[in-house]
Amino acid sequence: AFDPQSFPFHRVLATPPGGSTSPIPATSQPVIRLAWPTTAGKSYQIKTSANLSTWAPLGAAIPGSGSPGSHVDAVESDRKFYRIFEQ
């Protein structure tokens, strides 16, 4: 039987700007690494939600440099959604 407490799986949907979502394969890792393209002079705010209704910032905004941005987050619950805003 599948026990999400002892062996959680995670499914991530990648959404490019202006594009449609595409699933990223499930993983059983204890952390998730977010990566996205950045633009120099812009900043990027990661927000998280457990229900897709209420969103909260995950740390401070991350400055863009033109290189890919990234953030590693611990997997602490059965369900966590992410979105990244360019500011």
Describe this structure as you would to a colleague.
- This protein has no helices and 8 strands.
- A hairpin with a 6-residue loop joins strand 4 (43-49) and strand 5 (56-57).
- Strands 4, 5, 6 and 8 form a 4-stranded antiparallel beta sheet that branches. Strands 1-2 form a two-stranded antiparallel ribbon.
- 0% of the residues lie in helices and 46% in strands.
- It is globular, with a radius of gyration of 14 Å.
- It has 87 residues and is mainly beta.
- It has strands spanning 10-14, 22-27, 31-36, 43-49, 56-57, 62-63, 69-74, 81-86.
State the share of residues found in helices, binned by percent.
under 10%
Number of helices: 0
Mean pLDDT: 76
* Largest sheet report: 4 strands, antiparallel
End-to-end C-alpha gap: 44 Å
Net shape = globular
Order of secondary-structure elements? EEEEEEEE
- As an assembly, this protein is single chain
Q: Spans of 5+ residues with little confidence (pLDDT < 50)?
A: 1-11
Radius of gyration: 14 Å
> Which percent band covers the strand fraction?
over 45%
The helix-and-strand class reads: mainly beta
> How many beta strands in the DSSP annotation?
8
